[in-house]
Amino acid sequence: MSRRNARILGVVFFLANVVAVTWPGLVPFNRVRPFVLGLPFVMVWLTIWVLAAMIVLLVIDRAEHGDSED
Amino acid sequence: MERWQVIALVIAAYLALTLTVGLLAGRRQSASVTGYVAGDRDFGLLVMYFVTGASVFSAFAFLGGPGWAYNRGAAAFYILSYGALGMFPFYWVGPRIARVGRRFGYVTQAQMLRGRFPSKALPVVVAVITLLASVPYVTLQMQGAGIVIEAVTDGHIPLAWGAAIAYGVVIWYVLQAGVMAVGWTNTFQGIFMLVMAWTLGLYLPFSIYGGVGPMFEGILAERPELLTLPGLTASGEPWTWAGYSSAILVSVIGLMMWPHLFMKAFTARSDRVLRRTVILFPTFQLFLIPVYLIGFSGVLFPESPADPDFILPFMVLRTGLPAIIVGLFCAGALSASMSTGDTVIHSAASVLVEDGLGPFIELTDAAQRRIMRLLVLVIGGVSYWLAISDTGSLVSLLLGAYGMICQLAPPVVAALYWKRATTAGVLWGLVLGTATAMFFVEYPDLRPSDMHEGIYGLLVNVSVLVGVSLLGRAQDEAHVATFFEAERAGATRAHE
After folding, report:
1. Are B279 and A58 within 8 A, CB to CB?
2. pLDDT at residue B496 above 50?
3. How crowded is the C-beta side of B83, counted as CA atoms within 13 Å?
4. Cα–Cα dist B186/B184, whole Å
C-alpha cells in the first residue's frame, strides 16, 4: 500500500468509525442480544471499533514507515 | 487494629511509594525550562504510553464511569467511543507538532500557534481558556481523592484532609521534578489502576451474580432501559441521540487539545515513539469495560449509595473483601485522580508562564522555572480551596470545560494545514467560538437543540476563522513558508 492510499484509508476509517458509534449508524446495532462473552451486543460493537482503530493504525504505520527506524 | 486503620495504612504506603517514584524520576532531568516542561524531549514508549493513558483517564473515569453506568446505563458508553477516536488523528498531527517544536524550541500549544500567527493576544487567550478549564478539572480530581479516602476510612479522615494529603504528595513531586515526575508516577499509577479496574470489574459480577452474563440477564429483566443507547440523563429521563452523539463529537475534537495532552507531543523522544503511543492507546482504553462492569454490578444490589459517584467505594466496602484489598482498590482510584491532577496542574502552570507572561516580559530560564513552581502552588491552592468550599458555582465551569477546550482545535488545524489562514481570523474565531460555548453553558434553555454547546461554539469558530481569513490579506508568503519548511526540516532532523 502506498503512502497516499494509507492516508486515504485513515480518513475513510475515521469517518466510518464516527458514523458507526453515533446516530444514525449505531441504531441498527443498538441491541442487547445476542450476548457476547456475557456482554450486551451494543457494548461489544463499540469495543470492536476501539480495537479496529488500533489495527487500522498498525496497517497504516507499516505502509507509511515500514521497518525504518525514524 | 481496626479495619479503617489497616485501609489507611495501605493508602499511606501507596502514597509514600508514589512520592519516592516521583522524586527519584526528577534526578535525571536537566535544570532548564525544556527539562521541566518537556522532559528534555526524551520520553520513551513505556512512559509515553502510560502518561497518555493515565492522564486521559482521571477520577472522572474511575469514579464517574461506574457512577454513569450505574445511574445512566448505556449513556456511559460515550466515554469508550471518544477516547480512541480522539487519539486517532494524533497519529499524523502529533509528529507534525513535535517537529515544529524541535525546530523552534516550542514547549506549549500557544507558542506553536504564535509561531504561525504572530500576536500577543493569541497566547493570552489560550492561557485564559486553559486556566478556566483546568482549575475546575483539578478541583474535581481533588474531591475525587477526598471522597474515596473519607468513604473507606468511615469518615475518620474527612474529605478536606484526604484531599490535602494526596495532593500534598502531588504538589511535592511536581515542584521538585516537573514533567519527569509526572511521567514516571503516571507509569506506576497507570499500571496500578489497570490491574485494580480489571480485578474488581470481574470480581464483583462473579461474586454477586455468578458471572457477567447472569448480571446482564438480570438487568435486562428488571431495568432494560439501561442497556440500550442513548441511555438516561442524570435525572433518569431518556437521553436524546443528539445529546449522545454530540457529546462524542465534542470530546473527540477536544480530547487532544487539552494542554496537558497536547504538550506531551513535545516530550516524545522521536516521532516513532509518538506514533507507537497513538497506535497502542486503544489497549488502555479497554479498561473502561471493567469500569462499566463495576457500575452495572450495583444496579440490582439491594442497597444504594447516597450519590451515584460513590458506587465504587460503596460496592468495595459491601462485598466482604479483606481490609488490605479494599485499601489497594482505593489506591487504584487515587491513582486515577492523582495521575490526571498532577499533569493538569503542571501544564496549566507552564502555560501561564510561557504564554501569559512570556510574550510581555523577558525572563531568564531560571526565573521561568521559579515562577512555574510558584504557580504550581497557587493553582494547587486555589483548586484545593474550591474543592473543600461550596462548589455550586463550579458546576457550570466544569460542564463548559470541554466546550471551551475543543475551540482550540480549529486554530491548531489551521496553523498546521491551511496556508491561507490569518492571525485575525484565528483570533476572532477562537474568541467568538469560546464565548458562544460559554453562553450556552450559562443559558442551556436557549440552545436550538439538545446538542452539546461545544458544537455551536465550533460552528461559530470555524465560520469566523474562514470568513475573516478570506476577507483579509493573506499572510506574508515567506513567513508561512518558513513555518511549513520548518515542518519538513524538522522531519529531516529526526532522521539523523
Report:
1. yes
2. no
3. 28
4. 5
Nearest to B386 by CA among B157, B160, B156, B55: B160
Give the torsion sign (CA, B304, B306, B309, B310): negative
Instruction: Read off the pTM.
Output: 0.90
> Cell 478570506, residue?
B470
List phi, psi (to 5°) of B459.
-60, -45
In chain A, residues with a C-beta closer than 8 Å to the C-beta of B495 are 70
Between CA B217 and CA B201 the distance in angstroms is 17
Closest C-alpha among B347, B350, B360, B441 to residue B395: B441
Chain A interface, mutation test: which of B45, B81, B270, B417, most A Cβ atoms within 10 Å? B81
Cα end-to-end span (Å), chain A: 19
Q: List the one residue out of B487, B484, B343 whose CA is nearest residue B418.
A: B484
* Sign of CA pseudo-dihedral B448, B65, B182, A53: negative
Segment B124-172, tens digit of pLDDT: 999 999 998 888 888 888 988 888 898 888 889 998 999 999 999 988 8
Instruction: Find the range with the poorest average confidence among B34-38, B246-250, B267-271, B432-436.
Output: B34-38
pLDDT tens-place string over residues A21-58: 998 999 999 999 899 999 999 999 999 999 999 999 99
What is the structure's pLDDT at B340? 87
Cis link prior to A24 (omega < 30° from 0)?
Answer: yes
Confirm if B274 and A53 have CB atoms less than 8 A apart. Answer: no
C-alpha cell at B404: 471551551
Nearest to B141 by CA among B5, B367, B333: B333
User: Per-residue pLDDT tens for B453-482?
Assistant: 999 999 999 999 999 999 999 998 888 888
Contact between B305 and B130 under an 8 Å Cβ cutoff? The reply is no
Round to the nearest angstrom and report the end-to-end CA distance of chain B: 61
Q: Residue B360, class by beta-carbon neighbours within 10 Å (0-12 exposed, 13-18 middle, 19+ buried)?
A: exposed
Checking ipTM against 0.90, whether it exceeds it is: yes
Q: Which of residues 3-42 of A touch B (CB under 8 A)?
A: 7, 10, 14, 17-18, 21-24, 26, 30-32, 35, 37-40, 42
Cross-strand bridge partners of residue A39: A36
- The answer to whether the Cβ–Cβ distance between B84 and A30 falls below 8 Å is no
Q: Is the pLDDT of residue B487 over 80?
A: no
Q: Specify whether the CB–CB gap between B56 and B224 falls below 8 A.
A: no
CA atoms within 13 A on the CB side of B244: 29
- Is residue B180 exposed (0-12), middle (13-18) or buried (19+ Cβ within 10 Å)? buried
Assigned C-alpha cell, A19: 458514523
- Cα separation values, B253 from B246, B403, B406, B407, Å: 11, 10, 6, 9
Element spanning A62, H or E: helix A41-65
